[in-house]
């Protein structure tokens, strides 16, 4: 980590106050700005994906292919008039967006972006994440109540009930995975997936996708992943669980009365929360910052890129020339991925230093963005649940399933102790 | 004062002020919904103070249970109560002199407890030991104080206690070092592993600190002796803990927590779950429909 190694954190911590304070501010500043840019870009992606799924083009006017639309949106939100209706509780109305955003933003400091690199290294990582995100619920209730509007109040009540309910199956699945890893620390959870049991059959030490959390005890870990992802959709109020902001019933849910910059805070918090839940799923089930194919060499990546590029080029216009161009571009991309992103290490000697950092950040964000894409994809595919169906799914289907899953994973994790236990039981019977 | 300490102090005062302000708002607000929201500040500040005392797990659970559970429940209850904001039921009567006196008495007893009864110490209890001097003809002894700290070098580890980091700081204090003793030799033995010896020069105040790094997940024991510049022993070995480990290194938090909850704290844990069950039965009773005969 030559880039970050330039800052001597130990010396900062023991040195004078001002630089240390500045260091903390710098990290917070970078994170907030990253969230803003990320949220902007993901709204653009959301609209583009929506457009293509519905055979439209999506935003197309600002910038090439509408690529700068998000900047225009941000500018519009910033200069829009800030309206506070007469019947609002002004203090709470103004406070609510900050509470929601703080709850979402505070989660970002505990995520494992690269090996050994989290803005704050927590011993209690996942507990902190689950706990701090509950501030969002309070903020939503605050916004809904203080708006003095029945749409907002209904939206807030629905949202809070939904988030609190779905925390139960989500917490139970995470508990099951914690039985496997034996630590709450997000970095150590990633590290624990470098080697491990594959499909309950044998050990894998290469650190590829076979030793990731999702492959530990199938089908239970896979079910845990699915329950977590469904719960994550509900906790972030995404379709098919977007009942709190159901446009056809509630105008816009708990942020109906908000406009301009205050509205954009809710917007930012929503997208920030989506990133956080996807990052937790990535860390717990998809190996965090670990590369999926540590054994594949640069030549392997180049070959894969060549084939993929050739297929894509030919598929585009069914011409040989396009296939050749695609192959060359694909091979170049494969080599780039291999050299820059895979790191210079192999399976037995994991990459170190700067390449490990780049590789970690690349794989972590790629997996998170893949899950984000799935979320967007589902939004434009599935219809919305009713309130009673939502609660039925949570309490009568997912929660019992999560309990069974937890017990099953616990039994499989203690499998080495079954033999002695049973033997002891039989011996006790025989003796008596 | 190093930056970390200044920042920790500043953060403490910010959260202490927030807790006090939040409590005042809870008690004084005329609007009961605002009172409920002001609890957020109080509960969060309490969690922050736990975190400042290095009780991370308690801090996390505090936020998870009180903010994520109890507070949401309170706000729901307040909002669902019919026309609750119209009724000014929050503190219409001004607090009388009796209430004021009662509060003063509580504050006074709290101050007495804090100032006189509590042992508010961050550092470890030093282990006092007497080491024989084999080198001296008179058969004298040397008084040693042995201490062990967490990785920050300030927070103590009690004997047999645990740490979650792979670094531990050991300290040896020697009031009057024997003649010719210049260094401290520390022998650290992991359970079922090989002992390793480190030596550190004695400072002008007769104390020395040894930082251990790269510790594995297992119990450790250690002992010390004083040596001269020629490497010859000036005192006999003094063990920190006999018969048990001096400290344990844990990798993850979950295993020691699980053992603690299923071991020494089992009764408290189960008693609390009975309490929660009672609350659940009460809620179910209140929520069911009245059946008219």
Give the mean pLDDT of chain B. 81
Which percent bin holds the helix content of chain A? Answer: 55-70%
Percentage of residues in strands of chain B: 15-25%
What structural class is derived from the secondary structure elements of chain B?
A: alpha+beta
Query: Which two chains share the most extensive interface?
Result: A-B, 41 and 34 residues
Strand/helix succession of chain B? HHHHEEEEEEEEEEHH
Rounded Rg of chain A: 24 Å
Strand order of the largest sheet of chain A: 1-2
The main sheet of chain B comes to:
6 strands, mixed
- How large is the radius of gyration of chain B? 27 Å
The major pleated sheet of chain A works out as: 2 strands, antiparallel
N- to C-terminal separation of chain A?
A: 64 Å
State the low-pLDDT regions of chain B, or none.
Answer: none
Number of strands of chain A: 2
How many β strands of chain B by DSSP? 10
Query: Helical region count of chain A?
Result: 17
Q: Any idea what the shape of chain B is?
A: elongated
Q: Average pLDDT of chain A, to the nearest integer?
A: 82
Helix content of chain B: 40-55%
Order of H and E elements of chain A: HHHHHHHHHEEHHHHHHHH
